[in-house]
Amino acid sequence: MKKWLLPLVAILVLASGCVYVTAPGGQGTQGTTQTRGQLPTAYIDSIAPTTALPGESVAFTGHGTDPDGNVVGFKWRSSLSGDLSNLASFKTSSLAPGTHTVYFSVQDNQGNWSNEVTSTLTVAAAAPPPPPPTTLPPIVNSFYTSPGTMPLGSTATLHWNVSNATSITIDPGIGPVSSVGSMPILPVTSTIYTITATNSLGSVMAATQIIVISSMPPDMPVINSFFASPAIVVKGNSTTLSWSVSNAATVQINQGIGTVAANGIKTVAPTTSTAYTLTATNPSGWVSQTITVSVFTYIPGFKLDPGIMKIDPDIFKLPPSGP
After folding, report:
1. Is residue 319 part of a domain?
2. 81: which residues sit within 8 A by CB, 6+ positions away?
3. Mean pLDDT of 200-225
4. Please, what is the Cα angle at 74 between 72 and 78, to 5 degrees?
5. Are residues 258 and 236 in the same domain?
6. What is the dihedral of CA 145, 150, 156, 162, to 10 degrees?
7. How far is CA 321 from CA 215, 315, 317, in A?
8. Both ends of the chain: CA-CA distance in Å?
9. pLDDT of residue 301
10. pLDDT digits (tens, 9 = 90+) for 213-254
11. pTM
């Protein structure tokens, strides 16, 4: 029995990696797990840079040796960012800010893992955003004249509204002013005014122009009235044209009448229906109005009312209706 018991124990050890000890009475007990071969050794060659900025790429390089086999596996991990890579060399830019303890281990072809080796790496925290500026740049909200065009000798008004400025000046000839205001101006020629608003961040400018003219153009001419009385005449009779015009330098009526006064009457005797056009003109422009005098040939038996022709029943008798 003793001759074959020892070989049997050896076979059990090799097959399972465990030591079984047979106690008296045939009971067996399990011993500790045995490592297959010798452990490999891990080396961290470099971590660069060892102090990194947020988002900066960091390169990791390591290797391993095994006295009785080959290194076939790698494992990098971080105390702050967890598992990093299964490659011997790699780069990453996603490390958490703070001081990392970096762990590296290797595995041989027999499945044995080395003891972990360590190194340290510091990733700086992201810089906080800059605080908002306490001083805002100057702004010219509005700057204008009213009116924008004026006759010589009249007064206009300059208006302005400025924000965030420590000094405000208006040129020409006005100087320092407050941030919001208005003032009368009396330029003798067309003038461009500029406003400059300044603070510690710099200056801004705006401009407005006032146009001064020696005399304002007159209002447009106005034809107050223009008519013929009567507007319908029998051929050979006359009618009277009447008109009234304002703001006109010249007033003319066609059909050979020519230039007339601004207000007047004119008797005409057209032989056919005629259109009369009155035109009033001044430096600002012209306006016109047209009226028509209707002329009819007299027919005995017709009476002519203003605008209506009627049959005289004493002269023209209509036959009775019906069969």
Report:
1. no
2. 94, 95, 96, 100
3. 89
4. 175
5. yes
6. 10
7. 76, 18, 12
8. 163
9. 63
10. 877 678 899 999 999 999 999 999 999 999 999 999 999 999
11. 0.36
